[in-house]
Specification:
Pept_S26A_signal_pept_1_Lys-AS; 11 strands; 178 residues; Peptidase_S26; Umud Fragment, subunit A; alpha+beta; seven-stranded antiparallel sheet; four-stranded antiparallel sheet; serine-type endopeptidase activity
Length: 178
């Protein structure tokens, strides 16, 4: 009988730990759509760190999950932080007038002679000259086929679920850094 009590206690502790991790520390998400391809593919399973931004600040290029509306969460890459002036010209990202490399896009850019990211200024797509305080400008890596801040505007920092820490499915695509 003591053996079963020990097993029951171990299972109960494991369930409690899993509940705490799932509820407060991490969340699992399924990528729905092509906007982050080929960094993330439709159907990939992601581990999202829900406390990352309680510990540190949001950085440009972080891949985040946020509440797009009450029914949907989106996964996108942070391009602009509060106070940033953003523009694209000739497929080059400019933040505060300085060209910024996007090495995570190098493998993604098709060699078809077409522009990967259409020219725009922040003011043209949002009506603002800089990213407002408490807001972010986000974009999908699949710039030609992404519903992102160019379409729906800024994302409030309050909408963020967390930072994508890991892709864990399919096993052949397991990755920790994006």
């Amino acid at each position: 009988m003591k053996k079963y009590t020990t097993i029951f206690k171990a299972v109960l502790i494991a369930v409690l730990i899993a509940f705490v991790f799932k509820t407060y520390l991490f969340a699992s998400y399924i990528v729905d759509g092509e906007s982050m391809e080929p960094t993330l593919y439709d159907g990939n399973l992601l581990m999202v760190n829900k406390i990352a931004y309680d510990i540190r600040d949001i950085d440009r290029t972080d891949v985040i999950v946020f509440h797009a509306n009450p029914e949907e969460d989106y996964v996108k890459r942070v391009i602009g932080l509060p106070g940033d002036e953003i523009s694209f010209e000739n497929d080059i990202l400019y933040i505060n007038g300085e060209a910024v490399a996007e090495p995570y896009l190098d493998q993604l850019r098709p060699n078809d002679g077409e522009v990967f990211t259409e020219d725009f200024t922040l003011e043209e797509v949002t009506g603002e000259t800089v990213v407002p305080e408490g807001e972010l400008f986000v974009m999908g890596d699949n710039r030609r086929d992404s519903l992102d801040s160019r379409s729906f505007g800024f994302v409030s920092i309050e909408q963020i679920v967390g930072e994508v820490d890991m892709r864990y499915w399919p096993f052949s695509q397991v990755a920790v850094q994006f």
